[in-house]
Amino acid sequence: MKGLKDIRRQLSRLSGLSVSILKTPLLLIFSIAMSVVCCAQESEVAPEENLPSLVRQGYQVDVELPLIGDRDDQVRQQILRIAEAHSSDGPRPIVVLNFRPSAIAALSEPDVQATLRTRGSQFERCLALARFLTGSEAARVRLIAYLSQTVEGHAVLPVLACEEIISAPTAELGRAAIDEAVDLTVESAYRDVVRRRA
What we know:
Layout: H1 4-15, H2 25-42, H3 47-54, E1 58-65, H4 71-84, E2 94-101, H5 110-116, H6 123-133, E3 142-147, E4 151-152, H7 156-160, E5 164-167, E6 173-174, H8 184-197
Parallel strand pairs: 1-2, 2-3, 3-5, 4-6
């Protein structure tokens, strides 16, 4: 595939504008599609014959925050289904994990809902999902975290477990210890996830 600079040049030539790639999932998908088209055009083989080996599928999986209950397992099952649907000899499909706050049915008070947002994720759920994302089963897909807004608390863990992080201009990632004091066990878990992904 073409390098990022070549893709930027191609996009700039097409649109006449300076393009900032990877700011949103739509630009990511567009840039991948453009690189496939450019590769197919420059290839000596007819595009129809070489296209199946170049095409990379893309998916979006919503990660509802806070991670409580079985939300981590729902994400895991979706990624496994995507991985199983693709052969191992082709390019890895791209899975954009859209980390977003969602309502918790058990909490009816709007003030509590607004305060939680991405906070309140259970450490054990976040660690289990992060370990899965850095493991061999999830390695069959390319994992990209997308942050539409700030993510804090232990929800930071699965974000760090992704291969790439894309965020909206106003989104932030951090303050992992906002919900509870960090002890050595929690700290070593964070270090382990970062080491696995490095």
